[in-house]
Amino acid sequence: MFNLYSLIMHDFTLLSTGAVLCTVGLLVLLFFFREKILRYKCLRFWESNAEDHQNIEAFLKNYGSYAPKRYNYSEVKRMTSCFKNKLGQGGYGSVYKGTLQNGSHVAVKVLNGLKGNGEEFINEVASISRTSHVNVVSLEGFCFEGCKRALIYKFMPNGSLEKFIYEERSDSVRQLGWPILYKVALGIARGLEYLHRGCTTRILHFDIKPHNILLDEDFCPKISDFGLAKLCMKKESIVSMLGARGTIGYIAPEIVCRNLGGVSHKSDVYSYGMMVLEMVGGRKNVDVGVDRTSEIYFPHWLYQRIELDEELQLIGIMNEEEKECARKMVMVSLWCIQTDPSNRPSMSKVVEMLEGKLDSLQMPPKPYLYSPSRSEVDSLEVGSYQCSRSNV
Length: 392
What we know:
The protein is of the alpha+beta class. It is built from 11 helices and 10 strands.
């Protein structure tokens, strides 16, 4: 009996020791592989960072004195008083108010250092450095120091357009009156016309939306955020693109479903039209919080009113001049959101239509106004860009 007990205890001790050794071995292996993975990620990060630095240096060399000023990170901290006054935040990072040594105010967009490989950052610096227009934001400088990246813009006292068109208001008063709304819409159109035709290299923005339109003290609009922009030669009409880019609600159909036509400057025209429709309505074109999309898709409702020559019933219209202004903005927008890119006007034509008389505008063809369901919007928001017959 005693020998049996001793034998059992001996076997138990061996099993316990084996289990402990096995556990220790697994922990050692896990630690080894963890170190390998961390070392690999670290190596990839520094390789990417080194490549970014090479691209930035090449960019500075190519542009010489035309390149924006480069600041080091300590200067960025000093101009923002150690990031004291935060203006906003998004997926890209945060924006802070700052002051340059000459006393002028700036908005400093500090990017998430470990996000991506720096392509969007370099893209934005390269794009805006090619521009000089009253309706395009001016880049005062940038910072690229290790994983610390920042873009420094001229400060816009009135912030972005979105806060003036979506915030709560009364049933009869708008935050921005119709003369200012028209001025903003025309200014954005002129800025896009410049990007498409006025630059040595054509710039396609691909993310036109109220959030990316900044307003100065006189409500003069400035197109901003060129992180998704694409540069191409002026003679090029169709550009190649891997994957969809833009924001749901403003993305042109051909970007999601390539069988509808090639991606070109007409994609910006579509985004512009959708944005102006939200400006005149003071609301989102699609309310993703409601499932009955037939009842909530604003462009459908507007087209029916125009087609039947009925009052648009838009908020804040005080006289016949404002009524004509509103109707003109709606007509132009409905031309811009045509499903077929070839049916959309160029931005030069948009400017011409906005500056012309209402009675000179032809009724636009009825576009295939597609309003996505809530589930489809949710799937698009997480990056699942799919094309089917139901949404073309």
